[in-house]
Design goal:
CATH topology: outer membrane lipoprotein receptor (LolB), chain A
Number of strands: 13
Radius of gyration: 17 Å
Number of domains: 1
Distance between the termini: 25 Å
CATH class: Mainly Beta
CATH superfamily: Lipoprotein localisation LolA/LolB/LppX
CATH architecture: Clam
Structural class: alpha+beta
Largest sheet: 13 strands, antiparallel
Strand order of the largest sheet: 6-5-4-3-2-1-13-12-11-10-9-8-7
């Protein structure tokens, strides 16, 4: 069960990565133009910058189990995720520097290789300070996704995590992401589909997500997103 729950954690951190910026050119196409179009499509930089905290509730099914996920974020980079499944609770807390995962009465530190990935994905201010995280983008060409022509960007973090992100050329929205992620079972290829974008406080978020990893598949639907509710710093504290 621990391994299965950890894979659900990987899904959610990927979902939360909506803050991206370009630093590279390739094939004569400027990735920054694609990124700027995406930012405009989801509501614009001004509305994104207004989001100081966010609480997201999702529900769905994974490994024949009903799951509820509650994700709380606070600028600049605090993150808390709670997963409720099969009578078991899993909590992930990142205070901006270190992270722990709690499963029942057990608490463990998040390994360094996964912590580096979490540092980037938990950063709500990444649009404003991309150089602090060493994130770069390059253009990979065009591909079809569900009969939609998409621009494909390769994203690479400072720690070497590489993702391919697919943006619908017509809407500008992110529709697919592929990435290799380190898990307790080794490196795994993930594919995440994003759909049903809805506006919340001036920003569009995907409300349906489907992730495939190996033979497993997870589908979740967002039931609630609330922003700027003055989340307390106490919920992101890590007890020793």
């Amino acid at each position: 069960m621990k391994t299965k729950l950890f894979l659900i954690f990987l899904l959610i951190t990927t979902f939360l990565t909506t803050n991206i910026i370009s630093q590279e050119n390739n094939q004569g196409v400027d990735p920054e133009e694609i990124i700027e179009r995406y930012i405009s499509a989801i509501g614009g930089a001004e509305n994104l910058n207004k989001v100081q905290d966010r609480t997201t509730i999702m529900r769905g099914n994974a490994m024949d189990q009903t799951i509820t996920l509650i994700i709380k974020q606070k600028a600049p980079n605090k993150f808390r995720q709670e997963i409720k499944v099969a009578g078991m609770d899993q909590v992930l807390i990142y205070d901006g520097e270190k992270a722990v995962m709690k499963i029942g009465d057990q608490q463990m530190d998040v390994p360094e290789e996964q912590l580096d990935q979490l540092k980037v994905e938990a950063a709500m201010e990444l649009l404003l300070n991309p150089e602090e995280y060493g994130v770069t983008f390059s253009y990979e060409g065009e591909e079809m996704v569900d009969n939609k022509k998409c621009d494909v960007l390769k994203m690479q973090t400072e720690s070497g995590v590489i993702s391919k992100i697919y943006f619908d050329k017509e809407s500008g929205l992110k529709v697919l992401e592929k990435k290799s992620t380190v898990t307790p079972m080794g490196s795994m290829e993930q594919t995440i589909e994003f759909s049903d974008y809805k506006e919340v406080a001036g920003v569009k978020y995907p409300h349906k997500l489907k992730q495939s990893f190996g033979p497993q598949s997870v589908e979740v639907t967002v039931s609630s997103i609330k922003v700027n509710t003055n989340l307390s710093d106490d919920i992101f504290k890590i007890s020793e």
